């Protein structure tokens, strides 16, 4: 089940990356760049929920889809963070925390799979909350303006991305605490 509708939707998140980055090279006003990039990010990020829903609804779940889905999410978030750092809308320290955690937890999950202990690092609610906060903060920072004449998205996005960084560290500690007993028990 390599070419299913849910898997194709997951691929769109990866394909979206150069499109979102490319928006900032178009010869249009910065406000238009921000709006287009924000809209694209929101639409492509929404496919994360939709592809999972469709996979279950259409009975098109697959091990490849289960592998590709978090990879696509990580690529999309990391690319958006790098754009935000480049645009000086996010602190490089925040990007390092979030990207570093994603690499570390991916490596940890791979190691746990090798030793047959994947359940100890299964996705937890804390990781889902972290992802939700990131997926709100990033479009706010991409938009970088006033929403509905009231919400300063730069200020809100900055606060949310820092909260996301704190949740990122917290979730990494959580996963490491769950994994260490398994690693000690099986490592040679």
How would you characterize the overall build of this protein?
The protein has 188 residues and is mainly α. It is built from six helices and two strands; from the N terminus they run αααααββα. Strands 1-2 form a two-stranded antiparallel ribbon. Helix 1 (5-23) runs antiparallel to helix 2 (30-57) and helix 4 packs parallel to helix 6. The longest helix has 34 residues, at 153-186. It is globular and about 55 Å long. The N and C termini lie far apart (37 Å). The mean pLDDT is 90.
Can you give the mean pLDDT? Answer: 90
Unreliable residue runs: none
Instruction: Find the count of extended strands (DSSP E, 2+ residues).
Output: 2
Report the β-strand fraction as a percent range: under 5%
**Which sequence of strands runs across the widest sheet?**
1-2
Query: How many individual helices?
Result: 6
Envelope shape: globular
Class per helix and strand makeup? mainly alpha
What is the distance, rounded to the nearest whole angstrom, between the alpha carbons of the first and last residues?
37 Å
Helix content: over 70%
Following the backbone from N to C, one meets helices and strands in this order, namely HHHHHEEH
Largest sheet: 2 strands, antiparallel
Kindly provide the radius of gyration, computed on alpha-carbon positions and rounded to a whole number of angstroms: 18 Å
């Amino acid at each position: 089940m390599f070419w299913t509708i849910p898997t194709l939707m997951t691929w769109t998140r990866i394909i979206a990356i150069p499109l979102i980055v490319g928006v900032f090279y178009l010869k249009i006003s910065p406000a238009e760049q921000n709006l287009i990039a924000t809209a694209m990010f929101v639409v492509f990020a929404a496919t994360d929920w939709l592809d999972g829903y469709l996979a279950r609804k259409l009975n098109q779940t697959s091990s490849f889809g289960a592998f590709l889905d978090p990879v696509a999410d990580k690529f999309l978030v990391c690319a958006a963070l790098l754009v935000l750092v480049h645009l000086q809308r996010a602190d490089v320290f925040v990007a390092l925390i979030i990207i570093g955690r994603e690499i570390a937890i991916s490596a940890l999950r791979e190691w746990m799979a090798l030793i047959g202990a994947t359940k100890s690092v299964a996705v937890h609610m804390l990781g889902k909350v972290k992802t939700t906060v990131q997926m709100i903060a990033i479009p706010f920072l991409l938009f970088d303006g006033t929403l509905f004449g009231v919400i300063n998205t730069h200020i809100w996005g900055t606060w949310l991305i820092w909260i996301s960084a704190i949740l990122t560290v917290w979730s990494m500690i959580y996963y490491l605490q769950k994994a260490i007993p398994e690693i000690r028990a099986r490592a040679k």
